[in-house]
Amino acid sequence: MKSIIEQSSDRSDMYRFLVEFDNQWDEAIFADSNRDYSAVREYKNIQRIIIAGMGGSAIAGEIVSRYASLNLAIPVFIVRNYQLPLIKPNDLVICASYSGNTEETLSAFSGAIGNCRVIGISSGGELAKRCRAESIPHFLLPKGFPPRCAFGHSLITLSGILKELNLGFGDFFRELKDLSPLIRENINRWKIENNNFAVQIASFLQEGIPLIYTETGLMESVGVRWRGQISENAKILAYNSAIPEMNHNEIVGWDNSFSHIGNFRCVMLRTSNCHPRNSRRMDLVSEHIGKNCMIAEIDSRKSEVENVISFIQLGDFVSYYLAMLKKIDPSPVKTIDWLKSQLA
User: Fold this and answer.
1) CATH 3.40.50.10490: which residues of the chain?
2) Which pLDDT value is given to residue 73?
3) CATH topology of domain 181-325
4) Helices marked H in the chain — which ranges?
5) Percent of the chain at pLDDT above 90?
6) What is the reported pLDDT for 257?
7) Catalytic annotation, residues
8) Which of 118, 231, 329, 343 is the most buried (most CB within 10 A)?
9) Considering the entire predicted model, what is its pTM?
10) Which CATH class is domain 35-178?
11) How many CA atoms lie within 13 A of 141 on its CB side?
């Protein structure tokens, strides 16, 4: 069957980053094996980790913080702002900015210097310069990616750093290392040659405002990623929320009979690891919402980490296909560029 997707709008070749994501993942793993982590290993007695980042540079921190909250004793926080919380000497602040010039992250960096341990991650820019000037460990990402497309490099680099701290992230990193076959399998499932599940979801979302529901916990980071990717790539508003919390407030909003309620399209991302009660809640919410809701499941995986990476890949393809259906070039983010120019 011929694909319904026509790619003439993809003038900057965003599709290449999707179908070459396995190469990016392998390159990031190889880079980790050749990094000098000696400075990181000097950081002892870390009691709290704070990851400062924005947009596409923050999604790796989102995943790591939620993984830690479920599996580890050490608290990990993600800060998407200029100001850090009250810092203590045994805190570690990791500042992540793909460009190295994100003003909120640079502000957080300045607030951390001299008050705690600090690490920088970027492809260069002002963050790299400041790290060198302050003799702060800095880890370089390869250039040439839109920040949201450097997800593999960002996640592997961040988790590679964390594994060296002996705080319990070793298993997480080892699991990530083993995901290359799964990532390649996902690319083959969702690339453009077939009317696949990603195309079906994009077609469902095409005529409405996407609302992405996940279970709370690690999968919630996937909802954040889907929201960001749909907004940036397809240039439309999107929102995410989590179950069971939405069952205690937001679900009532669907009772409203005004016509605009019909403009929403809800996708529930459900995994085989979903808590049985939350799975039942998703069924009931879908029944309540009706035709404007679909439940998206993919093959059962062995772990939550596998589910997260698979659903992130699926969402990246969905956002791309949604842009193609709307005949929009997914790469430019002119409004973000305008906003930065006004703030300069």
Assistant:
1) 35-178, 181-325
2) 93
3) Rossmann fold (3.40.50)
4) 15-19, 21-33, 38-41, 59-71, 103-112, 125-133, 151-163, 170-177, 180-190, 197-205, 220-234, 276-289, 304-325, 334-343
5) 89
6) 60
7) 232, 248, 340
8) 118
9) 0.96
10) alpha beta
11) 33
